[in-house]
Amino acid sequence: MPASSKALPPAPTETPDGSARCPYLVVRDPESVRDVLHRPADFSPANALVAVTPLEGPALRVLQRVGFALPPVLASNDTGSHGGIRKVVAGFFTPATVVAMEPRIRELARQAAGNAADQLARTGHTDLVERVAAFPPAVVMLELLGLPVRDLPDLKRWGLDSMELFWGWPDGDRQLELARSAAEFYAWLRRLVAESMAAPGRNLFKSLAEHGLSRTEMCSLGYFLLIAGQETTTQLISTTLFRLLECTAAAGWKDAASEGGARSAVRHVLATESSVPTWRRVAAHDTSIGDNRIPAGTEILLELSGNRITAAAGFETPGRQFQTGPGSSTGLIFGSGIHRCLGAKLAELEAIVIIQEAAAALPGIQLRDHEPAWIRHLSFQAPRTVSVMNRPG
Ligand code: HEM
Questions:
Q1: In angstroms, what is the span from residue 214 Cα to ligand 1's centroid?
Q2: 20 to 30 Å CA-CA from 103: which of 139, 202, 213, 320?
C-alpha cells in the first residue's frame, strides 16, 4: 500500500433527504473504475446479483417454495470455474454469429416498426417501447441460444419484475408481488432446462450440462442471461427513441433513419445514460484504490455511464466518491476485464438497426407524452413508455 494511503471516511447511512441508505462507495473516475474491474482478486463480483433492498420473510418464503437459488456461475462468480462457463456462453454470441444475425434483426425490426405504423394509423397513437423496443431483442436472444421462442409477454414482465426485486427499492408488499413473479419465472426456467436436455440440436442448456453444470446452476445462469440478454437492450432502445424524439440526442429523428444517424444516437445514449449505468463489486480483502485504503467487505458502486442514478438516489455524498479523472467513462459501458459483457456487440447492433428501421417507417411522428414514468433502479434505467402520435399537418 502506498505511504500516502488514507482510509475513506465511514459510509453514510442515510441519503441527504433521509429516504434511503447508501451502503456503497461510489467510484466515478473512469481510471479507478477500470482499475477495480481489472483486479477481480481484490474486487469480487460476488455482490453483482445480491438484492439491493434486503428481502423480507414473506417474499423469501415465496422464493423458497420453488427452490429459487442463484449460485454463482457467471456474472457473480469469483472462482476459477468462471472462465470455462463464460467460454461456453460466449460460443453462442461469437462476432461471426452476431454479424450473421443482422438480416434477421432487420426483419424483426421492420415487422415491429410496421406494427407501430399500423396502430398509429388505426388509433392515432402508439407506444414505441411496447411496439418497437420490447420484443425483437428477446426473439433474437432465444434464437441465438437455440431455445423456443414462446411466452414473450411473460418473459418481458418477469424481467422487469426481477430487475425491480433485485435492483430496486420495493417495500414489503411490493416485494411479495415481485417475488411471486420471480418464482413463476424460475419455475418456468426449470421446465425449460428439463425440456432443453431432450430437445434436438444445440442449445444453451445442453452445452452447459455437457460442461458439468447442475440444474440449479443452469437455472441461475438462465435467470440472469434471459433478463440481461434482452431487457437491457430494450431499455437502451427505449431511451434512445425518447431522446431522439425529444430532440436531445446526438442526431435528429430524420437523421436516425440512416445507419450513421442511428449509430451516433445509440452511442450518445450509451455514453450519457446507458441502460446499465452502474455495476457492483465488493472488496475481497483489505486493499486500495490509488491512495485510498478500502477495507475488506466494502460494497462498491461503479459508475459506467452518466450519473443520473447515483445523483437521484442521493449517492453523491462528498468524501465517498472518487471523481478525479476527466469524467468520461466511454469504453466502460459494458464493463471491462474478465466479466466484460458478452452481448456488447449484439446489443449495439440491435439498437442501431431497430432505431434506424423505426425512424424510417415512422417519419412524421412526435412525442405524445413528454414526461413518461422511468425505470430508475440501482443499475437499470429507461422510460417505461415512449408514446407518440402523428405530427399535425
Ligand atoms: C445495452 C445492453 C447491455 C448493456 C448496457 C450491458 C452491460 C453489461 C455490464 C455492465 C456487465 C457487467 C460487466 C462486468 O462486470 O465487467 C454485463 C455483463 C454481462 N452481460 Fe451485458 N449488457 C447488455 C446486453 C447484453 C446482452 C444482449 C447479452 C447477451 C446476449 C449480455 C450478456 C452479458 C453477460 C453474459 C454478462 C456476464 C459476463 C461475465 O460475468 O463473464 N448483455 N453486461
A1: 23
A2: 202
Residue nearest ligand 1's atom 19 by CA: 341
4 part of a folded domain: no
Kind plus residue range of the DSSP H or E element containing 299: strand 299-303
Ligand 1 centroid vs 286 CA: distance in angstroms? 28
Question: Which tens digit of pLDDT belongs to each residue from 356-386?
Answer: 999 999 999 999 999 999 999 999 999 999 9
**Residue 16 resides in a domain:** no
The predicted model gives 58-62 an average pLDDT of: 98
* Residues 345-375 as b or e (16 or more Cβ within 10 Å = b): bbbbbbbbbbbbbbbbbbeebebbeeebebb
* C-alpha cell recorded at residue 288: 486500495
Q: What is the CATH number of the domain that holds 184?
A: 1.10.630.10
Could you give the CA distance from residue 328 to residue 84 in angstroms, rounded to a whole number? 33
Question: pLDDT band for position 13 (50/70/90)?
Answer: very low
Instruction: Name the residue range of residue 110's domain.
Output: 27-390
Ligand 1 centroid to residue 339 C-alpha, Å:
8
Which of 334, 338, 339, 353 best tests ligand 1's pocket when mutated (most atoms within 8 Å of CB)?
A: 334
Distance from the alpha carbon of residue 369 to the mean position of ligand 1, in angstroms: 30
Greatest CA separation for the chain: 70
9 within domain boundaries:
no
Q: Is residue 160 part of a domain?
A: yes
Per the structure, how many domains does the chain have? 1
Q: How confident is the model at residue 250 (pLDDT cuts 50, 70, 90)?
A: confident
Expressed in angstroms and rounded, the spacing between residue 225 Cα and the centre of ligand 1 is 9
